[in-house]
Amino acid sequence: MTEISPAFFLAIKKYQRHYPMPNSDFTKKKLDQITDEVRELHPLLKTLFKSIPEIKQYEHTHGPAEYGADFILYQDDPILSLEESIGVVVKAQKISQSSLQEVKRQIDECFTMPRPLSKNRTRGHLNKVWVISSKTISNNARDVITEQYKGRAITFIAQDTLADLLEKHAPHYFDVKASAFSEQITQTLQDIRNQEKNRLPQDKQGNPVYADVLVRAQGNQDYSEHRSEPTTLHKALTKSPRILLEGDMGSGKSFLLIRTFKHLATHAPDNAEREIPILVDLAAEIESGCLRESLSSLINQRYPEDLWEKGFTALLLIDGTEEAAAKLGEDVFNLLLDDIARLSIPGAKFTSVVVTSRPYGLAADRLRTNRNFRIHETEPLSFAQTVTLIQASSNSTLPERTINDLKHSQLFRQLPQSPISAFLLSKVLEEVRNELPSSITELYSQATELMLGRWDHEKGLIQQKYYQAASAVTVDIASYVYNNHLISLSYNECKERLENYLKARNLGIEPLQLEQIVFERSGLFYKGAGGSILSFRHRSFVEYFVALGFIQESTPPEFHQPFYDPERQVHFFYAGLKKECEQFLIAFINQPTHGTHERWQKSLSIPDLMLAAFSTKYSLVKQTLPSVFLELAQSYLDELDKGAEAEFSDLTECQILAVLQYRVRTVLGYRFFEPALEEVFLSIADDTATEKRTKAYALYFASIVARDIGLQNPFDFLLAEFDQGELPSPISLLLPFETIGNGSGTPSSALSRRVKKIRKQLSGKSGAAVSSSLRKVLSSPVKSRTQEKRGKD
Fold first, then answer.
1. Cβ count within 10 A of residue 266
2. How many C-beta atoms lie closer than 10 Å to residue 117's C-beta?
3. Is the peptide bond before 116 cis (omega within 30 degrees of 0)?
4. Angstrom distance (rounded) from CA 673 to CA 608
5. Cα–Cα nearest to 107, from 77, 59, 141
6. Of 548, 554, 544, which Cα lies nearest the Cα of 584?
7. 3-class secondary structure, 750
8. By the 8 A CB rule, do 88 and 70 touch?
9. How far apart are CA 763 and CA 14, in angstroms?
10. Is the CB of residue 411 less than 8 Å from the CB of residue 422?
């Protein structure tokens, strides 16, 4: 017997009239059947404690460091309004006088061992102890414990009392399981099984192969001096219940949500919150016509409103934001994001919310400034994880030589360590084990060529014309999907486009055979709705083939929303396929921007495109990089000067700078840019037309790139140009973090001396006024600038 799924709770109201209220004998019989304390009784108690209104909070503390208490409950004293803490000792068997040794040990530890308590986590002792058994507690056992612990508040809760509590506060805990699964959860699980079958590689037993993707809180958002450790999404939600999950294409965001949904829907025993998972693919809901008004109304249609009144909470998992933005347009999509933000405020029924986005998506831009959300990113796979995933995807073991070649290859240094990369590599290595692609675009190129039959052609299994036609049809369908903001097409429509392509040409190709190559054998597509709907296996395939279409037509992409995905990703693939495209890069550099977001997106996209188009004359890199750093600096300062009108007005100067510098080092931290850095420093320093504080931030951004690349003493140039009084406070406050885990070795003496001075100032040893001023920069939101100015006026 496992903990019941929160899906069952969705059926409470729907099935209540068909199932009579359970009586005491029924509940006691169910309690008699419980034999496993941790897997059966603990989940029941989690539900019960959460349902009792007098218990304002509980902690499941069972484990090696429990100090006697399996749970800790918190309630307010009704007279003094002081918080009381209750340790709970739980047993799934009968408690008798002969079996008291372990119970007494736990009670002793409950009362004698100090422990962190409540929200402030100050150390203290428990006030009371409850002893709970799902069976009976003998009178002799009660007498022995009462006598031994005279003056202590101990309450015994045996089967009779426990059954009464369940009937009062969680009456359908057992009988809901006797009813049916919620239709909505059942349908979602079925959709997941279809996606696993069609979109994930399968192992030899036919099971879906998942990557163990972890997440990490991004940057120094709370100014801790230690980078947060990677963890599971489920655990991250216990610390940050509202998460903006960022990840590049193919990083595993969607299937991470799916795994989290499955974990909660099957209700693993360690889920203490009894959350009901709600998985929403915005793009699919829009395309199907289900999302007509707001996300709130859609959820209320599917889940009964009084469910939340019963005290249950929900985890809202939102995917498909880029595709939804493309379908709705920016203005309407922003209204949808506002709706999500309203659902995500503390105290709302959706106590936990996860929204996925690529780093350059509209959702990321909008929600990144919402202080209710904590930004997390998908953690890159380790080399060992990548190899394991490649081998699982290809159902074969890689030779040791191939593993060593891969580990030391240029590809692996540039390759995003993501599930989609591992999947594509598996396709390449299945056929070509002696030559690795050199870049992510080349990996897509080699893998998709193999998937469409190039290798079969080279082995003489199909004619060249079939491979070429398969590629052309795929480009046509991808372009149609992209231009019309679709996520799927009917199979008949795809088949018709294939046949029209052949009718317009005298190729001597059998339509049925080409149909099998493209739609059945390639692995680029998957069928849904019983085979009537066709979708690309991954959105990045659409973007790659759209870019390939531009290459084949010898026409560069047009610019509509060049700084946002998916158009930005099409440009990346185009530059990578073209390799040398100076005029395209210049055209992109000259694109106008609107607002701070776009200024940053453009500045951060330029290095990405230059890295992709690595065969372009390097003089363009040297010429452009100084202006990239200066534009980032100036746009940051312009944002601060707006005060309450700023797009990031709820964030502090340091928070904005921390997020921005994190993106800078992510995009520019490649040795490809190393030859240009020396000229960057000199060019910025010699720029007489730029204000000094702007140059300070530009040099700071250049310094963190130099640090990540591994150059020696990366901050010395900045510190030589700006003494202690001249360096802007936000930079001074972030500099100490650059001495931790320094990628370029031991911090230089100049950096160490400066950091020492900064810490002295923060401590107040340099004067209370200086310390107060620095801490104000650290903690005051940008909007307070306007408020202060109005106060002075």
1. 15
2. 18
3. no
4. 11
5. 141
6. 554
7. helix
8. yes
9. 61
10. no
The upper half-sphere exposure of residue 594, i.e. CA atoms within 13 Å in the direction of its Cβ, equals 5
- What tokens does 153 get? 């508040």
* Tokens encoding 249: 């294409």
Closest by Cα among 349, 374, 111 to 220: 374
Q: Which residues contact 738 (CB under 8 A, 6 or more apart)?
A: 704, 707, 715, 747, 751
Q: What's the CA gap between 231 and 225, in Å, rounded?
A: 18
Q: Are the CB atoms for 61 and 69 separated by under 8 Å? A: yes
Rounded-to-integer distance, Cα 328 and Cα 326, Å:
6
CA proximity to 652, closest of 119, 219, 348: 219
Which amino acid makes up residue 379?
E
252's tokens? 């595993």
Spatial contact of 658 and 221, defined as CB atoms under 8 Å apart: yes
Give all strands of the β-sheet with 275-281 in edge-to-edge order: 215-217, 374-378, 242-246, 352-357, 313-319, 275-281
In the DSSP assignment, the letter for residue 178 is: H
Rg, the chain, Cα only:
30
The share of the chain scoring above pLDDT 90, in percent, equals 32
Residues in contact with 96: Cβ distance below 8 Å, sequence separation at least 6, in sequence order: 138, 140, 141
Locate the DSSP E strands across 492-642. Answer: 525-528, 533-536
pLDDT in tens, 397-455: 766 766 776 676 655 655 667 788 777 777 777 665 445 666 778 888 888 887 887 65
Q: Are 667 and 607 in contact (CB under 8 A)?
A: yes
For residue 247, the one-letter residue type is G
Summarised one tens digit per residue, pLDDT across range 186-216 is 667 777 877 777 777 777 777 788 888 888 8
